[in-house]
Amino acid sequence: MTKALTGVRILDFTHVQSGPTCTQLLAWFGADVIKVERPGVGDITRGQLQDIPNVDSLYFTMLNHNKRSITLDTKNPKGKEVLTELIKKCDVLVENFGPGVLDRMGFPWEKIQQINPKMIVASIKGFGPGPYEDCKVYENVAQCTGGAASTTGFRDGLPLVTGAQIGDSGTGLHLALGIVTALYQRTHSGKGQRVTAAMQDGVLNLARVKLRDQQRLAHGPLKEYSQYGEGIPFGDAVPRAGNDSGGGQPGRIVKCKGWETDPNAYLYFITQAPVWEKICDVIGEPGWKTHPDYAKPPARLSRLNEIFARIEQWTMTKTKFEAMEILNKDDIPCGPILSMKEIIEDQSLRATGTLVEVDHPTRGKYISVGNPIKLSDSPSEVERSPLLGEHTDEVLRQVLGFSDHQVAEIHKSGALDPPQKQAAE
To answer: Does 402 carry a binding-site annotation?
Structure first.
């Protein structure tokens, strides 16, 4: 069975998380991703957060499945020749360098276009054009500048970043969509183009409901926010809303049986209006179905603290899974707070390929995420990440068609090896 992106070749100049997320997704769909790394060093995440000495970290292995690795010194004249040939043979070049790095390497967009007019050059930057475009950006910086942190957390507390990597991985996913869109357009135009995704833009896209609420504020208070029911006035910016639901239906996290010792014995519970009567029956408050203080959503807004306290009395008598089973029978929306331990042990996630076991030659077996996007005619297989420079000679011979003599010359030039330090005289 042919994979969706079979025949597409990616020249991968990415590192750390945002870029590798993008290129790994393309590799899962069948693209031939050639990861270009610095000789002797490679992607910096190979050595970051190592849990086993002298072995590629999980940080690296879980972001670089299904890729080939070559080492190349792009400052070396022979290295530049090899890179030129790779540009001729590849469809897409992906990079997440700082601003101007590709230009300083001697390969600005104009030159790449001359070498290969069909080449798509895809880039992740921290910011788009503007006052901050030269600033360095990391995950938490992107969450803060994209508006997510200011709206995350509780009203009387500090802004918070989320554990989901919406800045790095989120932008990588945005860029992957841009790349496949550009590839599709190329089938009609025959031309390559530049694709860019700024981390600030990606975070803002994922936080769009808060941009929605900022504009709603001009027309009155945000009634679905808990502070409205508590009589606390709104300021001129969207506040932090704790665990309130963002969809207009009141929702909160409530304790379940065992919360005293289990930090994840909690359930997210939404008091959705269409199932309000069923909620009343489940929690043992049938009188609330007709009582004027509780029967209609507007009346309930000033009583949410009381309502969720009563709901919590009920959930504290059940485990989060027992509560979910009972509530789902009545279509009451809820969800248990799942720990990473519970997720990694979930056999259903392994059955669907959302979690996969990967065998690495030096690390051994480990669990990783698989492709979150499932195609019926293009199943994804997760292959281990490459060792540093593992496929250098293979790519030189098979992709570029170099002879043994040419490969030997390139090796001799030092273009594939760490730069030699000059001995002190």
So the answer is: no
**DSSP category for residue 258:** T
- Please give the Cα distance from 82 to 407 (Å, whole number): 10
Residue of 248, 14, 11 whose CA lies nearest to 119: 11
Domain with CATH 3.40.50.10540 in the chain: 9-206+344-413
**414 dihedral zone (left: phi>0; alpha: psi -120 to 50; beta):** left
Bridge-based pairing of strands 120-125 and 355-360 is unpaired
Q: Count of alpha carbons within 13 Å of 338, Cβ hemisphere only?
A: 12
For 137, the token pair is 């950006």
pLDDT tens per residue across span 114-156: 999 999 999 999 999 999 988 889 999 999 999 999 999 999 9
Nearest to 311 by CA among 299, 323, 295: 323
Q: Is 9 annotated to bind ligand?
A: no
Nearest Cα to 162, choosing from 137, 143, 146, 145? 143
Distance between CA 29 and CA 375 in Å, rounded? Answer: 9
137 marked ligand binding residue: yes
Which of 35-39, 169-173, 378-382 has the lowest average pLDDT? 378-382
155 is in an annotated binding site: no
For a pLDDT cut of 90, what percent of the chain falls above it? 94
Which residue shows structure tokens 């009343």? 280
**Closest to 18 measured CA to CA, from 227, 249, 175:** 175
Distance CA 179, CA 199 (A): 16
Which amino acid type is present at position 123?
S
Where residue 1 falls among pLDDT bands split at 50, 70, 90? confident
Confidence of residue 245 (pLDDT cuts 50, 70, 90): confident
> Hey, which residues are catalytic here?
168
Question: Six-digit token pair at 271?
Answer: 């008091």
For 9-206+344-413, which CATH class? alpha beta
> Is residue 139 annotated as involved in ligand binding?
yes
* Strand-strand pairing, 266-270 and 251-255: antiparallel
Backbone phi and psi for residue 348, each to the nearest 5 degrees, phi listed first: -65, -35
Please indicate if the annotation marks 248 as binding a ligand. yes
Q: With H, G, I as helix, E, B as strand and everything else as coil, classify residue 374.
A: coil
317 annotated as a binding-site residue: no
What is the distance between the alpha carbons of residues 224 and 245, in angstroms, rounded to a whole number?
A: 8
Query: Measured between alpha carbons, how far is 161 from 168 in angstroms, rounded to an integer?
Result: 13
Task: Please state the rounded mean pLDDT for residues 415-419.
Answer: 85
Residue with structure tokens 């994209």? 146
CATH topology of domain 242-332: formyl-coa transferase, domain 3 (3.30.1540)
